[in-house]
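>> received
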Amino acid sequence: MSTLAERLSRVRERIARAEHACGRPAGSVALLAVSKTKPVSAILEALAAGQHAFGENYVQDALAKQDALAGHPIEWHFIGPIQSNKTKAIAARFDWVHSLDREKIARRLHEQRPGELPPLNVCLQVNLSGETSKAGVAPEAVERLAAAVLGFPRLRLRGLMCIPAPTRDPEEQRRPFRRLRELHEALLANGVSVDTLSMGMSADLEAAVAEGSTLVRVGTDIFGPRG
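>> returned
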């Protein structure tokens, strides 16, 4: 059975190959290790292998890990659905939020971000499928939400995120990522300074990199199946 460090190395190699395959500069795609449901010991293994950015979905679980790992050089990313009663903890304890999809939540994160901390980096989660059961702002509402976020100085709008429906077909994988890139380019064209496309996971990171991803979120291929 491979070690976590070996699995992490293989994921980095996949990213490097994907960058090379589409003519992108080496190192242009960052890796976020999705450590939700995984123990502190696994995060420590990943840290020892040089990984410093970790993504969590569940606030209480994440806070316990943050307390246990206080003092370690970790960049914490919140990537799960945001409930109103969790915004204070997210605003105070995370460096990034990838799942912002409502102005109400943006306002709460802004108001609750401690003044001694730098602005909270945020990505807007976009619902590209239109399914009401899925989180995310509608594509046609991205510019309006982006404008609202820009009015909150304790937040720093970094870009867009999506979680498309899983498919094994490479071209079908690329389609939603292409759409997210187009929305990102539209923001840039309107003078919004964004630099992050958070898209691609264990099963489809190559398709995401081909369409311009700057950050892939990988859990299973690093930490193994969810326990």
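>> Strands lie at 30-34, 53-56, 75-78, 96-100, 120-125, 155-161, 196-198, 215-218.
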